[in-house]
Structure formats: structure tokens, C-alpha cells
Write a structure and sequence with these properties.
By secondary structure, the first copy, chain A, is mainly α. In chain A, about 80% of the residues lie in helices and about 0% in strands. Chain A binds a DNA duplex through helix 3.
DNA sequence: TATGAATGAGCATTCATTCAT
DNA sequence: AATGAATGAATGCTCATTCAT
């Protein structure tokens, strides 16, 4: 079953979600036509399981760093570095599949799924920024502004992800955008100092 | 043929790109199966033509405003208002279809298409910001920084578009993100004043 | 389309209803896999159409004889002869398919269909018996009794049909049963005479 | 193994014969896939065993009544009552499965099976009628006529069974048909008296 | 004995594409 | 130009049967 999920993940990275057929996954994992239906009734089910698995891995490192109260400068630059690497190696990303899934399903059906993905991400980014606030290197403009800023990070990275999928993304562009995000924190830092 | 393209556009708005079959377009425009193949050999061709049409309309108004050297404050707030309306009425948008198309095609094949879309957008946003610079209300930090800022606008709006498609987008969230973009200009204005 | 229905009828006679696949009908009529779906969406639809066609043919001759007020003795013996021939050549009958269809469907779904079949049959048999009454060769015991007798004819023939399908039916057995039905009319005739 | 047969019987009552899969029986009896194949190689084998079991139960009571030389009036009215109850509770009957089995198999293969079922039934009905003859309440028209009458009872009940499966059977209709069968005996009784 | 994972043949259905009219 | 009937490849899915444990 792990064999199926690993194979499926490779397929989803390669072909997104909508174009993936059971046949693709069967071919990739070497299990028979019927064999796969023992575990999963549809491509949808496999996809959801793959996403569940990924969620577990995804934030573990950064969350650990935050919990260990490591220096904000370190954490944020690690975070950017990791995102940059991800954006530059987008052939290993499930983002395309995630988008196609979210786009194609009737909205009520995916609400729970999408909310989990989004709120987990929000929580993680917020916790990083909060770490900066606690360490006095990010301005404390109140919870609302912090949330807004966290959302802006997410939105920016989502926007970059689209460009990555369109292969319209250069390293230079990434650096430029992350520089802007950094400045937004730095600015606040200065203001804080005032 | 206009009938085909109009019908196809409605279909692409409704179902994206990947899920659209010739049958869908046939049903929508009321022309026969064979009749459509006289003009277009595939859904792909129809899609490209629809996108070409849309490009023509898309930037006409804002470009005109810029060319007429209208007040930057007016132009930018119009731009945000228009984007906001678009994001809140995303069932009429071709963004999903655009994403699915870009995602699904082998990259070299869509490079030209994607570059046209992206550079048109860049040019328009840059021209707006340049208007601000010329009118002395946006900081003149050099061409590179301006381009970076323009990209940030684009990236942010793309990020919001994803959320719109996932129906994870509230009016509040849009306002918050546009406020951040506005502050980035204002900030620069202040600095400029210093 | 006539080609499809004729082929389908042969298949239903040979294999009943439940065991018939689209493939069977496709093989029999020589139309392509997709071609058949232009006219019919499922085996069910084809079956219903075949049955509709048959209903039209089925009672035409005997109904005509009744309407022409032909001698009862002639009509009834023709009817028995025809039924006997049908029972002895049951490989050309749709009875098996009809049974399997009726058996396998959720009852509300087939109610209308089954009622039409049954009431047509009832009406025809009743009209024959009524002919006998009008000609004074069948006892007039009231409408209710006549209906009951008509039902008995139907029930008997259905019972014989089951035996035919089981190939447990000899010519002798048929003759014996039809003799009983004949006696029932004769008896009444005698009584009538009393 | 009894567990298997009991479960299978419930399934056959519910779904007939053709639509029953091994999975259905597995689900119903809670024994594993492989476990069932130890005892039975196919659904066919299970069905035959279920039918064999049922034959043992089926006629025991009426046969006992006949052997005990109980009053014919009692025996026949018990028999009709039992049949009526069976017809009105046809969801517990194996008749549908029996029909589908008989219909679907190549005739030589089921000849023995079908003959056993039919001749057992014939024998039982004949023995009841013979009881009537012996008690002087049914006309003694010779063995051949008696057999013919027995067959008519069977044929009628088979015909009613079809209607039961089609849910076209009312209590009124059953009563009417059984009344006809009763009259056939009564008539003979009267004649006998003459 | 008993299990249940695995196999692969077979079915319904959809769809892009062709072509005679 | 325009039609729409016809094709056949491809997909999801089910099921009887096998077999290592």
C-alpha cells in the first residue's frame, strides 16, 4: 500500500490530478488492475491519502524549529531557502495536483480538505512570525496585522508557485520577491525601534 | 465562428480547460460536430483563440487611463477595485482554464503563449507604477526595484486567484492584501519624502 | 436502428436478459462499440424498445379475428395452436428475457411496463372469451367469472412457459393442459344448456 | 458449512441466481473468500446444494398428512393455504433463483436437476389427489386424467408464481384461481355422484 | 483448514476524429 | 460549407479464481 502511495505521488507530481488515470498509477506501481481496488476505490481516494501523508511530513521541521525557539533570522531564512528550493524543483511538487483537485471538485465537497490545508499553512507561517515578535525582531502590530502579514506570505508563495508551474520562474525573480517579503519585516523592525 | 468562441469561453469559465470536451462546446454553441472541425481542429486551438480574444480586451481600459496620464491614485484604486470584483466573481474568469492549460502542456510548447500573457501583464502593471513615479507619488528606486514591485503585484494577485478558485477567499482577505500592497507604495512615498 | 433491434431480439431470445451484454448485441449487429450508444444508452433501453415492438405485432392477428366476429371455435383453436407452436419453439421467445427483466428490477420501476404487458394480455384473452359468450358457446356467468377464467388461461400459459424454458415440456403435456382449458369452456356450455 | 448454505439461501431469495456473486455470499456468511472455495468451487455448486436442502424440507408436512390418510378436504385446503402464504411472501422464496438457474444453463446440464424438482412436485400433488380419490371425494377418471389434473395444479401455481415475482399478484387473484382449481375437483365430485 | 491479497479477463461507457452525404 | 452517424481506442470498475501464508 505504501508502494501504491509512493507510485501515485510520483504520478501526481508528473501529471497533476485531472489527467491521472488508474492505469497510470497501476503502470507506475506494478500492481494489477484489480489489486489496486482492494485499497482504493478511485483516483480521488488515492489522492486524498497522498495529501494526508504529505501534510504530516510537510511542516515538521519548521514547526520543530519554532518550538525550540531558535533564532528568528535563522528560521525565516531556512524557510525561504526551503521554499526557493521547492519552487526551483517543482517537478517534485504536488502543488499542480492540489490546484487541479481544488478547482475541479464541487466546492462543498472539498471545503473541509481545503480548509485543513490552508489553516495548517496559516498556522505555521503565523507561528514563525510570532517567533519574530517574541524575539523582538518583528514589529508587534497586533494579532490582526500579523495574520494579514502571514496571509501575504502565503499568497505570495502561491503566486510564485503558479509561475513555477508555468516555468516562468527564474531564481532572480524568487530572490526579488523574497527580498520584498524580508523588507516588510525589516521595515517593521525599524519602526519598532522608533 | 464568433458564436463558437463565445460559447467556448462560457464553457471554459464553467469547467476549466482539462475537463472540456468538444461535445461541451458543441452543446453550448449549437453548431454541429463536423461544423466545428472546419474551423478548429481541437479544443486546444479553440482555447488559444479564446485567450487571444481576451487579451485584446483585457488591458484596454487601464492602458488608456495610463496613456491619458490620469491621476495615479485614481488609476491604482480603479485597478484594485476591478481586480477585487474579478476575484469575487470568479465563476466568470478564465483563470482556472488558463492554469490548467499552462500546467498540462509540455513546457516548450506553451512558452510563447505564456510569455505573451505574462509580459503583457507585467508591462501593464509596470506602466501603472511608472505613472505613479512620474506623478511623484511612488518612490523612484530605479527600474529594477520598480519591476520587482510590479512582479510582486502580479504574484500577489495570482496567489489571491488561487484562493478564489478554492473559494477560500473572503472580501476581508482581499482588502487586507490590497492594503498591504497600498502600504508598500505609501511607504515608499514617505521614504521619498524623507 | 432496426438492425440493432433485430439483432438485440435474437440475442435476448438466446440469452435472456440478465446475461446479455452490450458486447453481445454489438457482435450480433455488426455495429461499432460507440455506434450503438448513439441510439441506446443501455441494454435496458434496447430491451424496452424490443418489447415495445413485439407488443405491436403480438396480438394483431387474434384481435383482428375477434373484431371480425369469426366463429369462437375457430378463434380459440387457432389461439391454442399458436400458443402450442410458441411453446414448442421457445428458443424464439422473449419470455425468458421478460421474466428476468421483471424479476431483476426494483418493483416500482417496472410497474408500468409490467402492467401494460399484463393488461394487454388480459384484454385479448377476455375478448376471445367474450366472443364465445356472444356467440352462445361459452357460459355467461357474469363479468367477474369471465375475468377469472381469462386469468386462468393466462396463468396456465405462463406456467407452461416456465416448463418450456426448463425444457420439461412435451407436446403431450401441452395437449393435456389445453384439453383441460377446453373442458372448462365446454362444461360451462353444457351447464348453460341446462 | 451450514452457515454458508443458510447465508447463501438468504442471498438467493433476495437477489435470484444470476446476480449473485461469491462476494455476496461471503459478505452474508462472514467466512473468508478462500474458506468458501474449500467447500464449493462456484456459486453454481452452492446453489445446487441449497436446492437439495430445500427439497428435503419442502414436502415433508404434506407428505406426512397424506401418509396419515388425513381427510382430503383438510389436506387440500392446507395445501392451498400454504401456497397462498408462500405466494404472498415471495421475498422468502427461491423460485426466482430456481427460474434463473433453469433458464440460464445449457439444457442437458440441468436435466437431472430439473427432473428431480418437477417429479417430486408431481408425485406430491398426485398423491394428494389420489388421497381424494381413495376417500371418494374426487372423481376416479383413471390414472392419466389424474396426472393431467396434477400437472394442471402445478402449472397454475407456477403461473401464479411468475405473477408473484412480477408483484402483479393480489390476494383476490390467488383466491379466484384456487377457487377454479377447487371447482375442478368439486365438479368431478358431482359427476361422480351422478 | 482457513485467510485475504493479488490477478487479469471482461464489461459499460466516453470521446476525439473521420467521412459520406 | 455544413451535417451527424459511425468508428475504435481508452478508461473505470467488477468478479471468479488462485495461492502464499
Amino acid at each position: 500500500m505504501k508502494k501504491i502511495l509512493d507510485a501515485a505521488r510520483r504520478v501526481f507530481c508528473r501529471k497533476g490530478f485531472l489527467a491521472v488515470t488508474m492505469q497510470d498509477i497501476i503502470d507506475e506501481c506494478g500492481i494489477s488492475r484489480g489489486g489496486i481496488y482492494i485499497y482504493f476505490a478511485s483516483v480521488d481516494e488515492i489522492f486524498l491519502e497522498v495529501m494526508k501523508q504529505r501534510s504530516k511530513e510537510k511542516f515538521s521541521e519548521v514547526n520543530k524549529a519554532v518550538q525550540n525557539f531558535q533564532p528568528f533570522g535563522q528560521v525565516i531564512s531556512d524557510y525561504f531557502a526551503r521554499q526557493k528550493e521547492r519552487l526551483l524543483n517543482f517537478e517534485n511538487s504536488l502543488f499542480r495536483a492540489y490546484c487541479e483537485y481544488i478547482f475541479s471538485k464541487p466546492k462543498p465537497a472539498v471545503q473541509a480538505f481545503r480548509d485543513i490545508q490552508f489553516s495548517q499553512l496559516q498556522k505555521t507561517v503565523e507561528s514563525i512570525l510570532l517567533l519574530g515578535v517574541l524575539q523582538g525582531v518583528v514589529a508587534n502590530d497586533g494579532k490582526e496585522k500579523l495574520q494579514r502579514l502571514a496571509n501575504h506570505f502565503i499568497v505570495t508563495i502561491d503566486g510564485l508557485s503558479i509561475l513555477a508551474l508555468a516555468e516562468a520562474l527564474t531564481e532572480e525573480l524568487i530572490d526579488g520577491q523574497f527580498a520584498i517579503l524580508n523588507e516588510m519585516i525589516q521595515k517593521k523592525e525599524n519602526e519598532n525601534a522608533n
